[in-house]
Amino acid sequence: MWSVKLRHLLPINQQRAVVCVAKARRMANSKYEYTKEFELDDSLLPSCWIVIRIDGKAFTKFSAAHKFEKPNDKRALDLMDECAKCVMQEFSEIKLAFGESDEYSFVLHKDTQLYGRRASKLVSTIASCFTGNYVRHWSTFLPVQPLLYTPVFDGRAVCYPTLDILRDYLSWRQADTHINNQYNTCYWCLVNSGKTPSEAQQVLKGTDTAFKNELLYSQFGINYAHLPEQFRKVGNSLLSVYL
Predict the structure, then answer these.
(1) pLDDT for position 24
(2) How many other C-beta atoms can be found within 10 angstroms of the C-beta atom of residue 28?
(3) In the chain, which stretches have pLDDT less than 70?
(4) pTM (2 decimals)?
(5) Is 109 exposed, middle or buried (0-12, 13-18, 19+ CB in 10 A)?
(6) CA gyration radius for the chain?
(7) In 3-state terms, what secondary structure has residue 39?
(8) Closest alpha carbon to 172 in 110, 88, 235
(9) Residue 68 to residues 59, 64, 101, 172: CA-CA distances in angstroms?
(10) Whether the Cβ atoms of residue 131 and residue 206 lie closer than 8 Å to each other
């Protein structure tokens, strides 16, 4: 917008034109700005740790189409880690990230004021940053396999009022890593040995951890405790300089 001082340096006819344009803009803004009232305030609770969890949409289909190795494809997991690193470099307010399979959780400090703590802005920017880097780095981690179609990640924002609850959330995601991986390891061993998917599911239905460990060792010679930690229990963790 022209300042009063700069405007007076113009010829009189141009000064009048500038005044008319400014007046028209003010009138337009006042006429239509009521539409802002339809925007909801989605600011997250203050003094709470914020977790933005992104999750791959229909990644069972996506991984099959792109021939991911089963039950774990280290190339794809390393790609997820690289995307998470890029997100943390872009948003320094993220202090911790934990990932498993096709999901990643990003923890923002309880005092962050990033985007005014607006959920829609936090979720959309972090999810889009992650997705963009997934496409960008695909050929680095899976150079032989072309990217057949665009990956999609959804996201959600959750507030945790204390460190203890935040720790329990992260423990839950870590336990989920173990449960899912142990089941998938058994499932794919059974399928690769000749059982149909439904037969493999029936064998594993209602079984506990001890049964699955014994099945892997007795039938396939796999000691579950010796599998890479990235697959087995730890998942993928990234830590910023400080919490």
Answers:
(1) 59
(2) 10
(3) 1-29, 233-243
(4) 0.82
(5) middle
(6) 26
(7) coil
(8) 235
(9) 10, 6, 12, 26
(10) no
DSSP 8-state code for residue 155: E
Kind and range of the H or E element at 203?
A: helix 197-204
Separation of alpha carbons 69 and 190, rounded Å: 15
- Report yes or no: 209 and 182 within 8 Å, Cβ to Cβ: yes
Structure confidence at residue 58 (pLDDT): 96
Q: At which residue do the structure tokens 């079984």 appear?
A: 207
Work out the number of other CB atoms within 10 angstroms of the CB of residue 213.
16
Nearest 10 degrees: Cα torsion 119, 123, 124, 129: 140
Q: Give CA–CA dist 207/211, Å, rounded.
A: 6
Residue 242: predicted pLDDT: 42
CB-based contact 110:49 (threshold 8 Å): yes
- What are the tens digits of pLDDT across the range 142-201? 999 999 999 999 999 999 999 999 999 999 999 999 999 999 999 999 999 999 999 999
